[in-house]
Amino acid sequence: ATKGEMPIDPLRMVAKEMKFLTGNIRHLLGSGHPSLDRAAKYYTQAEGKHMRPMIVLLMSRATALCPKASQPDPSETTQRINAAISPSGVLRDANPSAPLAGFSSDPESVESDILPSQRRLAEITELIHTASLLHDDVIDHSVSRRGSPSANLEFGNKMAVLAGDFMLGRASVALARLRNAEVVELLATVIANLVEGEFMQLKNTARDERNPKWSEETLTYYLDKTYLKTASLISKSCRAAALLGRADATTVEAAYAYGKNLGLAFQLVDDMLDYTKSDKDLGKPAGADLELGLATAPLLFAWKTIPELGQLVGRKFEQEGDAARARELVFQSDGIEQTRALAEDYCRQAVAALDLFPDSEAKDGLVEMAMKTLRRQK
Ligand code: FPP
Ligand code: MG
Ligand code: MG
């Protein structure tokens, strides 16, 4: 389609593949234990944004047109990965030579430029993300998610944590069946990175002092944490998508750079919306970060010009009135505007990373995903 004629809709470009995403994920999560089954599938009921799998699918399609690596894929069984799920949803023992079973797809899509392994990667990416949300809602004592009661509220902390663990287990099985050691290593690293990011977030600053002073390190720490917590999953799954498509090294790096910059922009916008939106707008509690003691980008930028925020950061906004005072100071500063500007900058870098890709509808879709990230209201 010519630009300007029709608005670019990234979802339309991978709609055929997306149609099977939730069903396939629920299939991967099947358990013979009824309450585990219910808890594990709970967050797949409400329609999530599915931003991560969409990016993986668009990246798969966009990189299909890029130069290929000269080395052959070490695993020629990649296309058989979808075997070994019985109709009851219980995973059988690995059998790499089994036919493609239990993997719903449109018969037409056999000719698609998106490989079955890349679709499976999109599902695994969403599984890891959803598992992290189950754990996150326990850690954050969150009561709502995607406009419904959170899993911890619905099932209790113990079941929510175990459902998240189960999900990671099933994601790992599906990942192993891709028969690509580099991709397994990437996604396993993501799981470790999510935990590292969450640990960094438990402290607001690198040295965890009582009365910290603002320094350039304040922002570095926040951005490192943000990479681990959010951008690692997006960037490494983009990288994995390119690898599964046997793209050459330059393309693989570009895919990674796109995901990394987009992931950073995504979290900056998230941290901004936490200040500017209501619970109802977001479908989850707003203003949650200060309540949780977290100093995110808007506050860190405000702190640079308002040193009194240091004390509040140091005691994690826990005294009566701290959160309200911090909020007021953020709105007096240009913290929100600076956060937006930084998010825009990362978006520009994400789009620039795609420069070397040949023009395609999927590439336009990836550019549009970056623009959507800046425009989103929830
Ligand atoms: C949402 O952040 C949470 C994350 C991006 C990652 C959370 C990671 C963990 C809990 C580590 C354990 C994860 C695994 C997979 C073992 P948020 O709380 O800022 O966003 P929210 O407003 O959507 O809750
Ligand atoms: Mg949370
Ligand atoms: Mg959290």
Describe what you observe in this structure.
- This protein has 378 residues and is mostly helical.
- Helix content is 62%, strand content 1%.
- The protein has helices at residues 10-13, 15-18, 21-28, 34-41, 51-63, 116-139, 151-155, 157-176, 181-202, 216-244, 249-276, 279-282, 288-291, 297-305, 309-314, 322-332, 335-353, 361-375; strands at 144-145, 148-149.
- The protein has a two-stranded antiparallel sheet with strand order 1-2.
- Helix 6 packs antiparallel against helix 8, helix 11 (249-276) runs antiparallel to helix 17 (335-353) and helix 17 (335-353) runs antiparallel to helix 18 (361-375).
- One magnesium ion binds next to loops.
Features:
about 0% strand; mainly alpha; globular; binds magnesium ion; binds farnesyl diphosphate; 18 helices; about 375 residues; 2 strands; two-stranded antiparallel sheet
What's a quick, concise take on this entry?
The chain is mostly helical.
What topology emerges from the helices and strands here?
Elements: H1 10-13, H2 15-18, H3 21-28, H4 34-41, H5 51-63, H6 116-139, E1 144-145, E2 148-149, H7 151-155, H8 157-176, H9 181-202, H10 216-244, H11 249-276, H12 279-282, H13 288-291, H14 297-305, H15 309-314, H16 322-332, H17 335-353, H18 361-375
Antiparallel strand pairs: 1-2
The protein binds farnesyl diphosphate and magnesium ion (2 copies).
Residues 136, 140, 142 line the site of one magnesium ion.
